[in-house]
Amino acid sequence: MKAEHYVGGVFRSDGPAFPLVAPVDGTELGAVPEATREVVDDAVAAARSALKGPWGAMSAEERATALRRVADGIQARSEEFVDAEVADTGRPRAFAETVDVPRAVGNFRAYADLLYGRPERAYTTRVPGWSSGTGEALNYTVRRPLGVVAVVSPWNLPLLLSTWKIAPALACGNTVVAKPSEETPSTATLLARVIDDAGLPGGVFNLVHGHGPGAAGEFLTGHPGVDAIAFTGESATGAAIMRNAADHVTPVSFELGGKNPALVFADADLDDAVDGTVRSSFTHSGQICLCTERVYVERPVFEEFVARLGERARALDGYGPMISAGHRDKVLSYFRLARQEGATVVAGGGAPRFGDARDGGFHVEPTVLTGLPETARTVREEIFGPVCHVAPFDTEDEALALANDSPYGLAATVWTRDLSRAHRVAPRVETGIVWVNCWNLRDLRTPFGGVKASGIGREGGEYSLDFFSEPVNVCVQI
Fold it and tell me: InterPro entries of this UniProt entry (predicted)?
């Protein structure tokens, strides 16, 4: 899939090109156009114009029908989406087939179904006459779109996370300018093709490619014509976007980084806890914001848990590469730092050799560490790779103190057979999501997001619709 901008219903390739590199073997996949400030200006202007055109006059039913056409289009071209996602990210094909593409289809269908809920629902209340001085008044609330929404999505789950924002934004009647990661432009371009084929008016969805600071990302998030920003990515990038948005007091929805803890109690089913930690630490080579990097295990089962987790990590194969050479080098630098800080490397700790084309790619070994103090940088800083540090605890209160001693607060897992403990501990973990005896089990209707440096706001179901629409009170004196 050739990467192109999509502006006002027209595909174009303005701007200098930069290479797209396959993370599996380091080969060049093609060239991507870097959007200039003029391209971003055109995209925002096209989105603004579309608000005043047919899209702005569409009913909820018509918008829902349009979203379902997009969902059908993704489904019809699912193999192309899988091919593009695998090529850009290097993830196992089964992951793209069972997670990325089905969830993208599900996002558009789910928000088409929800369209008759929050944005179109009026709240009516009769209030006494003191509010106006005479008689009574009827107050009701309607919701209107925010306007032009900038959607900036990351490279780790590019299709899933972009559609999770684009679908509710469009459902609420907004127009969108999307900027995917420069590392993963292909499925975004294919989505633009699907939206074009679905017949959405020109300018309703716009796509610009490019980098972040001093480039397309900064041009878009600091644009005075943007009415809201939805972003998923690193906490530092979120802070930069906030500074950019502050000049225009632009509302933001952020899902940012994490240094996610797991608490494994001695009464847990160790088979399930080990299996779950393998999934939560090493899925997509740890390149998911929800992945576990800190594991705290009750002391009576600590040694057995570490031994079993290390054995499983050493046996892993087909887990996929880092997204880029730069990210591989960052992860490997943390492995070196861990050793300098005094870690015991139970498994992994380096770059594998395959003896084939993959040796030109950006792979690192699934890694299990122990022995570091909680003050170690390796324990406190987000690595975003296939690595976890395992430490013991003795009491429930100690486990909670360890889990909560972090600047991040996105997700956590709790492993225990004690139902009372599960209900007691889960609400006290300072994260936006707590899974008990599972990981990444998601219902699209539930709130998703983090606390502290892990984000602002919530996504999912009506929580997304709340962000992408503005409540307006109407008061009629009777």
Answer: Ald_DH/histidinol_DH, Ald_DH_C, Ald_DH_CS_CYS, Ald_DH_CS_GLU, Ald_DH_N, Aldehyde_DH_dom, OHmuconic_semiald_DH
Helix (H, G, I), strand (E, B) or coil at 440: coil
- The CA–CA distances, whole Å, from 221 to 139, 181, 238 equal 35, 14, 10
Query: pLDDT (tens digit, 9 = 90+) per residue, 351-379?
Result: 999 999 999 999 999 999 999 999 999 99
Contact 315, 352 (CB under 8 A): no
Please give the average per-residue pLDDT across 286-296, as a whole number. 98
CA–CA separation, 215 and 428 (whole Å): 41
For the chain, the distance separating the N- and C-terminal CA atoms, rounded to the nearest angstrom, is 60
Mean pLDDT for the chain? 94
Q: 326: Cβ–Cβ under 8 A, 6 or more apart, which residues?
A: none
pTM of the model: 0.94
Residue in 34, 183, 218, 255 annotated catalytic = 255
Contacts of 40 (CB under 8 A, 6+ apart): 177, 208, 216, 219, 220, 223
Summarize pLDDT for 440-459 with one digit per residue, the tens.
998 888 999 999 999 999 99
- Per the annotation, the verdict on 255 as an active-site residue is yes
Domain ranges of the chain: 5-256+454-477, 260-436
pLDDT tens string 159-207: 999 999 999 999 999 999 999 999 999 999 999 999 999 999 999 999 9
For residues 259 and 408, the answer to whether their CB atoms sit within 8 Å is: yes
CATH of domain 260-436: 3.40.309.10
Q: How far is CA 478 from CA 125, 129, 130, 138, in A?
A: 12, 9, 12, 7
Q: Which residues contact 229 (CB under 8 A, 6 or more apart)?
A: 149, 150, 152, 221, 241, 245, 250, 251, 252, 253
Rounded to 5 degrees, what are φ and ψ at 264?
-115, 110
CATH of 5-256+454-477, one of 3.30.565.10, 3.30.1360.70, 3.40.605.10, 3.40.630.30: 3.40.605.10
Tokens 């290097």 map to which residue? 90
Tell me which amino acid residue 91 is. R
8 A C-beta contact, residue 451 and residue 432: yes
